[in-house]
Every structure is written in C-alpha cells, then in structure tokens.
C-alpha cells in the first residue's frame, strides 16, 4: 500500500509540476555518464535492500533519458541486484539474510516455490511477481542453477521494465491513449500468467497472497 501511494504521489507531483523534470533533463544532458550510472546503481541498490522499490522513479527517468534507455538502465540494475540477491541467499542462507531483510516476509514464499523450479516457471514468476524478495526466495528455497536463474530473470523482467518505462513516459507527457493501451496489456498479461502459474506450477497455497 505504501509503495502504491508513493507511486501515485510521484505521478501526481511530476504530472502537475514539470519544473523538476525540466531541470533533471537539462542536468542529464550535461552529465551523460553520471546520470545513467546513478540511476542504474539506484535500481541495483533497491533490489538488494528489499523491499524498497524504484518503480515510482522509472516514469521520471523515462522522460529524462527516453523510455527505451530508462527501461534498459532499469533492467541492468534489477538484473545485477537480483543475481547478487540469489548468490547471497544460496551461499550464506538465513544467517546473513536476517541482517538484510525480514525473514518473516521471506518465508511466506516457501509455500509457493517448488524445490525443482524450472526455467520457464522463473520467467513466469518474474513477469507476474515484480517484488525484490523473490530473488532471495529463489536462491534459498529452490535448487535452480545460477545460470538458469540469471537467464530466466533477464527474460522475465525485461518486458515489464519496458512497459513501465513507456507507460510512465506516456502518462507524464499526457499521451493518455498510449498509457491506457499499455496499462490494459499489462493487466491482461499479468492476470493470464498469474492464473496459468497458479493452475500449472504445482506450487502450494494461494498465489494471490504474495502478488
């Protein structure tokens, strides 16, 4: 709920007050290296320090850098952070994770992740569940290999990163037709994949509790 309010708040702020975006655009044009690097590092950091999120900033970044580059920087940061999360969970387990995240929040994922997690199930989870604790949970509770997890994570997170980036740019630039189309596509895709995963994956419990 807090994440949703922050997301809506960021939209409303920059929708009605364009001065900060204009300033950031100008700043990004004069700092073509540090701006993208800072945003990518922030995307990486919020994945490792779960359950923070960078989603409210993606639409702003899409206006500053362009939706394609903003989506690309988001994917790079998310991907690197997710791989680090997975390795930390797999190699060091709960003793280390307890110092980084809430184990109580993490353990609720155990009922939804089969031990023999296949490649395409990770792809589906990455599309459906855009939360940062998932990386820790897959490293801790599944036995999927690192390379399969990494590739599946990249494939699964890329579509939503670009959708959020293009949709956010469309909304802030008041291109409502494009925003509505992308929003509908996202809702239909996530709903269909959620239903498919719930019915076919063999995971225990109700997936609705952690979407």
Give an account of the 3D structure.
The radius of gyration is 17 Å and the shape is globular. It starts with a helix and ends in an 11-residue tail after the last helix. The protein is mainly alpha-helical. The protein has 10 helices and no strands. It has helices at 2-16, 19-30, 34-48, 58-65, 67-97, 103-107, 119-128, 133-141, 146-172, 176-200. Residues 203-211 have low confidence and may be disordered. The longest helix has 31 residues, at 67-97. The protein has one domain. Helix 5 packs across helix 8 (133-141). 74% of the residues lie in helices and 0% in strands.
Provide tags for this entry.
10 helices; mainly alpha; 211 residues
List the topology elements.
Layout: H1 2-16, H2 19-30, H3 34-48, H4 58-65, H5 67-97, H6 103-107, H7 119-128, H8 133-141, H9 146-172, H10 176-200
Helix pairs in contact: 2-4, 3-5, 4-5, 4-9, 5-8, 5-9, 7-9, 7-10, 9-10
Summed up, what is this model?
By secondary structure, the chain is mainly α.
